[in-house]
Amino acid sequence: MTTPLRSKGKNTVVWILMALLVLGLGGFGFTNFSGSIRSIGKVGDTEVSVNDYARALSNEINAFSAQVGQQITLDMAMAFGIESAVQSQLFINAALDEQAARIGISAGDDEVRRQILGAASFRGLDGKFDRQNYTLTLRQQGLNETEFEAALRADSARAVLLAAVIGGVKAPDTLAQTLAAWQTETRSLSHAELTADDLTEALPVPTEAELRAYHAAHPEAFTSAETRDIAYIWLTPAMLRDEAMPDEASLRALYQARIDEYVFAERRLVEMLVYPSEADALAARTRFDAGQTSFAALVAERGLARADVDLGDVAIEDLGAAGDAVFAATVPALLGPLPSDFGPALYAVNAVLGAEEIPFEEAKVLLAAEASMEAARRLIATRAESFADLLAGGATLEDMVRETPMQAGTIRFSADIREGIADYEGFRNAAASAKPEDFPELAILEDGSIFAFQLTAINPPELISFDEVADAVRAAWELAEIHAGLLARAENAVRAVGTGVPLSAQGLVTTSIGALPRGGFLEDVPADITAAAFAMKAGEARVIDAEGRVLVLVLDAVHKPAADDPATQTAREALATQITQSLARDLVDLYGRAALVEAGLRIDAAAIAAVQAQMR
Predict the structure, then answer these.
(1) pLDDT score of 391
(2) What is the pTM of this model?
(3) Domain boundaries, the chain
């Protein structure tokens, strides 16, 4: 069965030229497709082999999987349009092969040899072409030398053809220059934010009728969120703490096992300055002893900062062979030269941190709390399975409270509630997705607690009565009145600017920006300021009402860049490159489509389905 290929969009071929100009085996990764089917279709007299189709499709799926971080299936690839794009590219490549053959473009043996010898995939350990590696690499990819070299000739011929197609493409200088000037244009502006202090009239006192009318007109602001009535049971480690309390012998054993946390040997605050040789260290020490320098100066002479030589508080064993001398010294002291892991060094001993011990009686309370909680978690873990069996056997929440240590509770849950069991993410997620018909199931929480619950009712959002939210309504009404007043004040300021009165002369705190670049960022103001500044004319003023704030914006001046401005020249060059590449892609697209129509296309849908069946 054959089917004509539907017209594809530009995106299916825009990268063809780029693909043709890259040589290497990094993309191959699919072995030969065995069977009696040879091709998935023909363009003119050129076949597209099932091996090429299977290999290209597999490579694209693997590349997309690497990009998204998970392996996608063939069905997913088809849904994403990957399979259609692979077909289109292969058939357009075949059409270009037909064009190259008709025109008489081909790659000679020397060109094929040059590309093979230059391919990194075929080099040996010495960096040179390795014939054995060449053959082995092709075999691993399901290719023989004849097939690969034929494909290489076709790729080279297509590259020559398309290079000729786009050889004269160049971005118009006027277009690149105009866009660069637009892109690098800057603007000077002034803005002032209005606050309640800028209002000249006091707010009116609302009547109850006005407040009730506001409440009715803004129901979204006074509507309660959905809530869920939940009956639950749970068991936390804290509930079993008394039952899990260890005896004193266990606590003493735990204290001994963690003795390093409670008994601290003497430590000292030490700095270590290393020298290249014993003689250098000794010379420095001699100058220090003679009062000719200080330790800080010695550190600076070595090109170091005090932080670079500070060892912090150290134990005697941390200092190796120098430990005994350092811990025998009277503080403060400069010792050395003494050995270190890095060479001879001077040691500055700055302070003594005496030995310290936290006796068992002091540590006992904390140890008991930690040990009992851990033991309680283990108790819960060992009992959880039997509790789950009770629930699965039909026990109600009330039964569970009678027959187990679990405790009962109820909660009206919503997204805003974070108290008790609602403070656990595990419970919150389960409660938010539960249905009334769900049976209680035992689940574990982050700290080892267990719980089960029953959703008893879902309370939809509803308008809260005016009497319940009267104070909130009054506050919202006042904010709305203030905002309306600020907008009116801002409109007056805009009109005043139009008559020649600057913002700074209107009693408003004004901020001026000298040269704002297109797309620039202004701190502590709404982003609408930047967008508006580049949509305004010089001298224009505008009210900015954004993010609950009211500002007046004045565009003071538009600064066109000079033609020889370095930033403009850099932007022009970058834009010229982008435009040239875009034009080239469009030209390749049009030429590829025309070549496909001219050569004629037949697709074997059954062959494509057979390849896809083996890939599933």
Answers:
(1) 94
(2) 0.52
(3) 2-168+582-615, 186-216+470-559, 227-240+373-459, 263-357
